[in-house]
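pipeline: protein-struct stage 2 | run 1193 | SRCR domain-containing protein
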Amino acid sequence: MGLLAAFLISALLVRSVSLGGRVVCSFRSYLLCFLFSDVPIILNGSGSTQCAGRVEVYHNNSWGTVCDDGWDLNDAEVVCRQLNCGSALQAPQSAYFGPGTGPIWLGSVTCSGNESSLTECQHPEWGNSYYYYNNYYYSYSNNGHYSDAGVICSGPIRLTGSGSTRCSGRVEVYHNNSWGTVCDDGWDLNDAEVVCRQLNCGSALEVPQSAHFGAGTGQIWLDHVTCSGNESSLTECQHSGFGSNTCEHGQDAAVISVSIILTGSGSTQCSGRVEVYLNNSWGTVCNDGWDLNDAEVVCRQLNCGSALEVPQSAHFGAGTGQIWLDNVSCSGNESSLTECQHSGFGSNTCEHGQDAAVICSDLIRLVGSGSSRCSGRVEIFHNNIWGTVSDSNWNLNDAEVVCRQLNCGLALEATQSSKFGAGTGQVWLTGVTCSGNESSLSECQHTGWGNYYNYNNYYYYYNYYGHYYDVGVICSGDIRLVGSGSTRCSGRVEVYHSNSWGTVCDDGWDLNDAEVVCRQLNCGSALEVPPSAHFGAGTGQIWLDHVTCSGNESSLAECQHSGFGSNTCEHGQDAAVICSDLIRLAGAGSSRCSGRVEIFHNNIWGTITDFNWDLNDAEVVCRQLNCGSALQAPQSAYFGPGTGPIWLGGVTCSGNESSLTECQHSEWGNSYYYYNNYYYSYSNNGHYSDAGVICSGPIRLTGSGSTRCSGRVEVYHNNSWGTICDDGWDLNDAEVVCRQLNCGSALEVPPSAHFGAGTGQIWLDHVTCSGNESSLTECQHSGFGSNTCEHGQDAAVICSAVSIILTGSGSTTCSGRVEVYLNNSWGTVCDDGWDLNDAEVVCRQLNCGSALEVPQLAHFGAGTGQIWLDNVSCSGNESSLTECQHSGFGSNTCEHGQDAASFCVRILVGSGSSRCSVEVYHSNSWGTVCDDGWDLNDAEVVCRQLNCGSALEVPQSAHFGAGTGQIWLDHVTCSGNESSLTECQHSGFGSNTCEHGQDAAVICSDLIRLAGAGSSRCSGRVEIFHNNIWGTITDFNWDLNDAEVVCRQLNCGSALQAPQSAYFGPGTGPIWLGGVTCSGNESSLTECQHSGWGNSYYYYYNNYYYSYSNNGHYSDAGVICSGPIRLTGSGSTRCSGRVEVYHNNSWGTICDDGWDLNDAEVVCRLLNCGSALEVPPSAHFGAGTGQIWLDNVTCSGNESSLTECQHSGFGSNTCEHGQDAAVICSAVKLIHAITTLLTESLSELVANPLDFL
């Protein structure tokens, strides 16, 4: 009674019970449930309602779920009845309402459907959720909560009565433990709409009066119901109160919701004549204007996948009776056919010979992020639920079957790893193996519907790893190339529309239009658009005319055109394309004539390694792509690293070949090169050696004094370069040129051949652009070669991208001497008063992130010519340097030895300067980095790039908070020596399978770093950051105590040496500290006593003061720390003990499998402990704890680090700590011998002092 009283008091206080933030039941209902039900039951989860959700039962004082093994409608029926939620509509599986938490109380539940409680059904013991498979018992919990069962019940409303169906009948509601009717006073279509929506029955068609489906019995619960039509439940509508009415059952309200079926001769569940139910009778739909969009709605409404065809002329036989709908016009996104526009119920001028029909894909559909009708994640319908296919063995043959099944042409790609996003629900198939000729995916070999797979003698569900391996397809879709002499990538262009193939008229047909076709067909770039039905005249419809593409569209149908079937053409004008087929240019910053070189082989695009890559090779690529001459042959993944195979290496062309594959090269995919008597694989460097080209393309800026973004304008036509006459040449024309060359906006159009007169053809004259064109040739002009000009009128441009640059010796895109463009010449900026605020404006203006340093005294070399600005004073918020205060253009008292400079960095910290989440700037926006494989080497690059010292830790799981927006980088792999994070290997900008919960982070040492010749992460010249600049420490009084603090501060173990006299080479810049005196216990070097920042000028020696700087940086202090290795354990010393290494932010041991003196030799050398004497077995210095990081270590003995030795991989072992490896180094015996000698000598001295006199 005490327990009950406590429960009552607590329940009265809270008034309701909340589960997962959702109020499940009122105090009264919860109390009844708790006191009078043998096992309380609730529906919970994402998207759950009172009568739909994940099934949870209460047992042993905790809520738990039910496993969906054998879960069906009979089981769901019992739950719905137990909750007074009507009948079961569905029994969803696979954690349809999200995975639960806590125990899995029941599994293998088997109900007849008539039980009053789920616990009356057959089931194993509570929590004993095992199933028997292949002579073994397995726990349901192996798959976690991803098999939690759910139910969808009809809820506290139903349609019943004489002649009723699932979606039409007398309306009854459940209240006070009994069903009752609704009075039809004021009952209208708005009220009925709510009922139909609540029952998943589409829209309301009628509200028949006078107990149309027969009079009910018992209570009349509702009267004067008034709904707006948008309510989610009938009880949300206004009414006179439960049980308050003046009605009889002859006024019981009813509804008829829309119903739809496919029927007729030869019909199936998902193909047939379309009929809808209205006014108590079925009727057909007229096919006036009937198309795939309309059919798509029908197929979706019937759970029949996607619409494949809309056969005409009563294909499944003529119906009888009413023709209910005509002139149906759907967008394709409606949930019900009656939501589409139509001419009114029963309003038509048709006969049954025009009855509309559909053929749906039935058991297969393509969906997901970025999907289209012919590309997407493959889903199949089985057991009344859609599910996915796992990508085990998935290939083009399998995809070919899917594309054929969906009338989507040929398979272009067979995507894996959830390219179109992860699905939900069941993983129905895996191990699919098709020959490619099957008519349906289910005809292919596979392992069985929803079956298990065997791994390491255990059976697992396919969806054990969730939906991360869902397959997809990319089909050629509604476009093809055909005709006489056509190939896969050249031919007459035909598109599929209204169930038939048709051609495209070549009015205005150009390379931009062809580019879209080539991309859509995975055929590289467009080379030519041959006119006049080059591949023969087609037949049938001409579907498109006046096609106008920008070239960036993903489908030809996205381009502007005159409308399907609208044209004034004949088939002698059928459009055609010739694509590059096996070669294309791609990558970050690529264009039609510049980019990473990729070739198509074995049905997949791959790259070329840059070994021996030169201008001759690039010349062949540019010629093959009709892109003029090769200007550059960039290496080292200049346009970003590619993905997939590296197809070719060692390419050697004479430059005259017509195709790259005609050049000498290593075998396809056999990309090895011979160097120093060894063969090496090109793939060792991944895609960071991908070759590229920069071709001259159809436009260039050239001439005397020209730059990349300023010069005389020349265009390429008829295989030769020519100039443009400046008649009418203005800023609008120049704007197009600047945009086309990625040079920003147009600043000037200098006249009179400003950059010198050209030679040869003058290709264009009277050019007139609006300024919005994507190419100069899109502008109006007098025609190629038509002009009355001379070369003294050659047009020129100066674009905005050249208004400011960073240049000079050792400069990069984001660091260098600052120069601005004014009055037709470049000039420098004087560094008088130049500071980080000024540099911040420069960095922002150049999209180079934030300013790190402002090096003085012409750090990047002295410029020449004008000094345009002096005494610049910016707040740091200006958008351009010229907006800042300054002494006036050209007004200065400086020389070029004072030229200003800036160091920018395109990287952002998210939480303080040394403890930060990492963000990078790309494509005009900031984004995060995924922590897949993220380690200290990667962090080291970030810390260096941010002037934050060395990397100390790489905390996981968005340690500093989850970011937003793009995740730019994933699988970053740095050596640690790169100058920028983007120089490291990665999976490509924007290519990842991460969420922001995996955002990478770093903790840098901030004010301290180790640098210099021969330095490493844990040894080097000590440098500290102060006043925005790095400086050194003088070695006066420098000892092991001081070094100990540095090693601890850098997470580098103990100090082994405190080298002096610039052991790691002399530094540069200020000498920040001198006379440093540490006890050795400080947490930071700046906590130690010292002479003051920069006050390191004098030290007292032999009655004189001396300046530290007298000796320059030749007295710079250094440290050598033990690094990521230590000797520890019971009885250990500095040079003997259990070996432990530091990895992934924790210390761990080494297993002694194969551990020998060679391995120990590396450890002893690394710790400055002499040679290895012994390798005592069996955890000689005691068993460690935590991780065992290394096993099967095999060293030659000459390695400089233990991790350079062969081993089985970090964390990969089959050991226990009783096998922890140990070493005894020679320095131990030396110390022991010295100690013994001293002890014995001291004993003799005490015993016989006179002997020592």
